Amino acid sequence: MSGIMLRAVRRTRLRRVLIVAALAALGAGPAIAAKFYVDGKLGNLKPSEIVTVSDPKPVQLLFEFQSSGVPNAKATKYAKPIAIASINQRHVFSELSEEAAPGRAVLTISMNNIPEKGAAGKGFKTGLTFGLAPLKVTDSYVAHFELLRGPGSAPIACDVEHALHMTMGKGEDPSIGVLVKNATDGIQMVIDQTMAHGINCLAGKMAAPPAAAGQ
């Protein structure tokens, strides 16, 4: 294991230990239960924003989920089916396949989760004060979409940013975002909205004729 990956694993373990300690100190009372919010800045696509593709083509999909820039195989396995279902709903491509084929376009997506620095310390503080110190932790997500439409063509790219927030020790706050039932629902919504906006962005750029590589 590389030094970078080892440090990332250690940070993740420390964060989990401290947050578990905070939860144990807080107890299970509903007034201080964790709440999860999907950031409201991105949201769902409005009907007027959706770009349609008149002649969808098949594409090879290369999808990877990362944690702080380090490939995360377990998270990729979990997130990929959600991403594929969301992309298929957009009808921008006629078929998604992980197999390469001569002349087939290639869609590469990387989704990087960037946990908030100092999140573990914030959780520990909330635990020590038995919920009197409100906690808000943010997991940021940065997704890069790149489409290569054919040999010799220049790739087109789009970037999308999203976030999932967790709060403890405070009441509901609609200003943070969209309140969801749990973290699982939250990450699924984050992935779906990220895919929708990224693929829609690519669809808009696909309307232009393919540019040759180097132009």
Kindly describe this structure.
- By secondary structure, the protein is an alpha+beta fold.
- The protein has a single domain, classed as Double Stranded RNA Binding Domain.
- It contains four helices and eight strands, in the order αβββαββαβββα.
- The chain has helices spanning 3-26, 73-90, 119-128, 183-206; strands at residues 35-39, 57-67, 70-71, 93-97, 105-115, 135-148, 156-168, 177-180.
- Strands 1, 2, 3, 4, 5, 6, 7 and 8 form an eight-stranded mixed sheet that branches.
- A hairpin with a 7-residue loop joins strand 6 (135-148) and strand 7 (156-168).
- The protein is elongated.
- It starts with a helix and ends in a 9-residue tail after the last helix.
Radius of gyration: 20 Å
Using the alpha-carbon principal axes, give the shape.
elongated
Structural class: alpha+beta
> Which fold name fills CATH's third level, the topology?
Double Stranded RNA Binding Domain
In the CATH hierarchy, what is the architecture at level 2?
2-Layer Sandwich
| Strand residues, percent | 25-35%
Instruction: Tally the structural domains.
Output: 1
Return the CATH class: Alpha Beta
Low-confidence stretches: 1-10, 13-31, 123-132
The helix content is 25-40%
SSE topology string: HEEEHEEHEEEH
